[in-house]
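Today's session is about reading a structure prediction critically. Students often jump straight to the picture, but the first step is always the sequence itself: look for stretches that repeat, for charged clusters, for runs of hydrophobic residues. Only then move on to the predicted structure, which in these notes is written as discrete structure tokens rather than atom positions. Here is the chain we will use throughout the hour.
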Amino acid sequence: MLVASIPSPDQGVWYIGPVPLRAYGILIVVAMIVAVRWTSRRYARRGGDPDLMYDVALWAIPLGIVGARLYHVVTSPGAYFGEGGDPLLALQIWRGGLGIWGGVALGAVGAWIAVRRAGQRLGPIADSLAPALLVAQAIGRWGNWFNQELFGSATTLPWGLEIDDAHLPPGFASGTLFHPTFLYECLWNLAMAALIVVVDRRFRLRTGQVFALYLMAYTAGRAWIEALRIDEAQLIAGLRLNVWTSLAIFALGAVVFVVAGRLGRSTRVEAGERAAEPEESVLTRGPRADRVLADAGEPHGLDHVADDEKIRE
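Below is the predicted structure for this chain, in token form.
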């Protein structure tokens, strides 16, 4: 077998005058645009207002970036607060270092704020976001390639990743090839995004179940990919912290999937929700309201319920 390898980029920063253009930042921006636009289209197909996603993005993206950076700093504190560390580096987000779970957590808070202000449900938006978030993460991982960071252990496989001497971890000889974990995660995320889209179309899932699939699909891959990495990380019982986090969130996703299925809420946005008005059921109206509607010529009772169910179908 001919030995091949994946070269690393010669540079990850370009300058327009004094202004630096960093590949990492560019990819993050591209990932955000793709995620927001695709989520908006998916939300519209569920009956929602596609413009709402841009309001959600204004809250979720800034908080998500802050959360992602905080998670990275807290779980990898050595470079910032350890011996010889520099706390100011924690503010230099352009150097890389974003923890997805901090981003998802605070991003969800931002999304909840925007959705609450609009009087909508968070579930259909989260379900619309699920595959788009995976694609965004796949795009963002290429920033690690440009920064020559977060790669795996040494390998002799023909797709090993070349790393410049300036970025080699201590103890490795020049020319050593490493597992391209950025590529593994990119391919995994794209495959899982496609799987979620197929499942979402073929099966009648309930609100929250699609996002639960995202939690399980992403963490199933992240656990084994994380185990390949050799960058500094906190270890608990011999496993990296992010491996334990992935296992915990996979379990959470499984619980959410079961509970959401039992709650049985529709993943579609109803007309009343689009208008940000509470939907009133015929079964909850009082006798006086029924008499008024009957006088106005509106059907009520079981016939009306049957007709309403047909419309929902």
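Discussion point for the tutorial: The first strand starts at residue 13 and ends at 16.
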